[in-house]
Design brief:
alpha/beta, four-stranded antiparallel beta sheet, 17 helices, binds adenosine monophosphate, binds zinc ion
Length: 463
């Protein structure tokens, strides 16, 4: 490995070198709670996770990657009170909890595919499929003296873990305020959190399980500790999530995992900054909640949106409005056009030296804490530099674009082959029209089936 991948670690607040114990990087990404459509802010988190993965693979590492699917236990308050988000959505829609979580998991997977996020080999474990592992972990925590019982469930006693809150960002004031509100409960400390919640007396939840402590369901945090340990081992190389996870969810994950393993949960903790609509947060109430499909209606393709995201570093809070998204879309189209034009004008042959310089330039930028903004700038500078471009052979240019695209995931390589046009037969056009109608009706199952049928006939639908 000639280049070291330098990443900002939230825990030590320092840039750290990635140093996996073998050639495999084990990474865990906190996944979606599947009770609603992902908004484009949520999706930024997964483009960021994809950039980590792509960069590791670009540098020659193998990657073992897990993105969990939260299909139980995440309560409306994000803490220990309120309804379960999935059960609430199920009641509202007149569906089962399983129907809700399966539907939104499918939408999430479709969004990942449209954003060209690599999922080969990635595991997407569901919390409801790891109940026994979660119970076993709570039992171990109980044996180690970290757990107490209230009338609502089994709680983690943060005072038994000296390092509690080491990831920082704990909002003492906010939690103290929370304490006032919840003072009636039996928690020892406002930081204590539920590991297992009892089903409310006299009420049958759709999703509940027997446990040594009574019928109920796991708390929101325990799934990540249980599943990461089961699938990736006690210490991860990289753990990612959005910055909102720092104060509570990730501090809690650390407490649960480290009180059992007595080892660091992750060597590097990475957090993606938020994507916000101008200067407000994305929220449903004021109509500023934007889905990937909403962008298409404005003429912004998923890859145009991806280009927009890559213009900023993952740690930089980014604001969007329609204008900035549209200008990213235009820049993306220009980029493809430029690559296509250069490609058409190059001759055969090879000159490894320039290719080597370009590869180094690319590597230096991406290994500097995933500076995708600088990678894009470097790509543009290279494409605009007549001297560099004219001294490249067709093959070397193709290699450079392929390498850059391995990091950025913008389907730049397609611009090298796009002039091979095949006529689309009438039956395929009919299938495509039927799929558009199905999508407009939000019949995703039918739309997916038609996409597969088109694929089987040798054509790919690119939205
Ligand atoms: P959730 O489904 O709410 O658990 O969120 C999924 C992921 O999206 C988490 O990693 C969150 O930290 C992240 N996230 C939520 N809102 C935003 C936002 N506006 N911008 C970027 N990431 C976000
Ligand atoms: Zn998590």
């Amino acid at each position: 490995m000639t280049h070291i991948l330098k990443l900002y670690d939230t825990l030590s607040k320092e840039i750290k070198a990635l140093e996996p114990k073998d050639n495999t990087v084990r990474m865990y990404h906190c996944g979606p709670t599947v009770y609603d459509y992902p908004h484009i802010g949520n999706l930024r988190s997964y483009v960021f996770a994809d950039t980590v993965r792509r960069t590791c693979e670009f540098l020659g590492y193998d990657v073992k990657q897990v993105i969990n699917i939260t299909d139980v236990g995440h309560l409306v308050s994000d803490a220990d009170t309120g309804e379960d988000k999935i059960e609430k959505a199920a009641a509202r829609e007149g569906k089962t909890a399983k129907e809700i979580s399966e539907y939104f998991t499918q939408i999430f997977m479709e969004n990942l595919r449209d954003l060209n996020i690599v999922t080969t080999g990635t595991q997407f474990p569901k919390a409801t499929e790891y109940i026994q592992e979660q119970i076993d972990l709570i039992k171990k925590l109980e044996a180690n003296g970290h757990v107490y019982k209230t009338s609502e469930g089994m709680y983690f006693d943060v005072q038994t873990f000296e390092e509690y809150g080491k990831l920082g960002n704990i909002d003492l004031k906010g939690l103290e305020a929370g304490k006032r509100v919840e003072l009636s409960d039996e928690k020892y400390s406002p930081y204590d959190f539920a590991l297992w919640k009892f089903s409310p007396a006299g009420e049958k939840r759709q999703q509940e399980w027997e446990s040594p402590w009574g019928v109920g369901f796991p708390g929101w945090h325990i799934e990540c500790s249980a599943m990461s340990q089961k699938l990736l081992g006690e210490t991860l190389d990289i753990h990612t999530g959005g910055i909102d996870h720092i104060p509570v969810h990730h501090n809690n994950e650390i407490a649960q995992s480290e009180c059992v393993s007595h080892k660091p949960l992750s060597n590097i903790w990475m957090h993606g900054a938020f994507l916000n609509w101008k200067d407000k947060k994305m929220s449903k109430s004021d109509g500023s909640f934007i889905k990937l499909s909403d962008l298409s209606e404005k003429g912004i393709t998923p890859l145009g949106f991806r280009y927009f995201l890559l213009q900023s570093k993952y740690r930089q809070e980014t604001m969007f409005d329609e204008e900035s998204l549209l200008s990213a879309q235009t820049a993306y189209s220009r980029l493809l056009g430029r690559i296509k034009a250069i490609w058409a004008g190059l001759a055969d042959g090879t000159d490894d030296k320039i290719l080597e310089i370009l590869t180094i330039g690319l590597t230096e930028r991406i290994t500097d804490d995933l500076n995708t903004a600088q990678v894009l700038a470097f790509l543009w500078d290279t494409l605009k530099n007549e001297t560099t471009v004219s001294s490249l052979s067709k093959k070397d240019f193709e290699t450079f674009i392929t390498k850059t695209d391995a990091i950025l995931g913008l389907k730049l390589v397609d611009a090298l082959t796009a002039d091979i046009v095949r006529e689309i037969p009438a039956e395929i056009q009919a299938l495509f029209a039927a799929r558009t109608i199905a999508r407009n009706k939000k019949d995703w199952t039918e739309a997916d089936r038609l996409r597969e049928e088109i694929k089987d006939a040798g054509f790919e639908v690119i939205d």
